[in-house]
Task: structure prediction
Amino acid sequence: MSTVWITLIVAVALYALRLSGFVLPEAALPRGTESALRFVPVATLTALIVSGLAARPEESTPRLLALGVAAAIAWRSGVAWLCLGCGMGVYWLARLL
Amino acid sequence: MRAPASEGYVPRRERNVVERSPAAETSRTRFLRGFGAMLPLWLGAIPVGVAYAVAARAAGIDTGPAQLMSLTVFSAAAQLSAVALIASGAAWPLIAGTALALNAQALLLGLAAARQTRPSLPARLLAAAFLTDAAYAVTASGRRFTLAGLLGAGVSMYLAWNLGTALGLAAGGALPSSRRLGLDFVAPLMFLIVLVPLVRGRAALCAVAVAAIAAWLLPHVVPAGVAVLGAGLAGSLAGAAWQRRDAGGRAAAPPDPRAVEGA
Result:
């Protein structure tokens, strides 16, 4: 399937999700669900990072190093471009060594 | 795009208040205040938009579809995961499922916003299109939570996001071979940058740990895209279980305004 079709499907799905909170009655969401929903993005982001690492085993050392540095900077400063710049910098350096 | 703060989106109840009290602010003022409150976050959103564009080009996606994705999907995490999954040849249900999982919180934000503003149906339809974590957080940290303010913040972020994407795509042609530069690493780095501000409290840490272990083990038994969704599900259930176990569970913190667009 073409990238454009996939894009449109994802767009419609996300719009439906964003709209669902605005149109659903409050009672529609049981308490337990609400608690689990908060952790879905956290867990999915983690899974994406780990699966990205697992997919490129030959590069795992420079990538782990760079992720560690970027995580530390994100924790301390939260400035996205700084984390990204330092992360890529460490990654390129570690690949050269 | 229609003028988002026109009278049509103001609930009747509020409209009367505006008419009676000349000091009361119009929804136009609220929209503009929301728009302005988001401006400092442009500094974070534009580089992320550039990074998304670079990741999309590295995944072999053309300029047009890459910009179309920013115009229609409008979520950093969903778009970065989509380009990574498209590059790995994943099927569309997995790509859509991952995008939904990454934005699961939008459901809660929409519920909270609707509860506080009780908007008309057209207002709901419009506000939903521009709803992100960052817009919600900026609006919630203001003096009063209004739908016009939320919309202003959302539209502001939408412009920044698409501007960043366009800049990244324009600069993309100047970059040497993305494979040699390892530019596909931009996507996991961005996931990490979105993730870190979200990890607060032991329950979130538990979700991260379980998701990481599951994402490491699952690809041995199921396809990669399924493994990501499965690990995400396992992690979120573990986080929720931990929170329930914690005596009463402290009230969850509101979204962090520092968080970059659309986590």
User: Anything to note?
Assistant: Helices of chain A lie at 3-23, 31-55, 60-76, 80-96. Chain A has a mean pLDDT of 88. The radius of gyration of chain A is 19 Å. The first helix of chain A runs from residue 3 to 23.
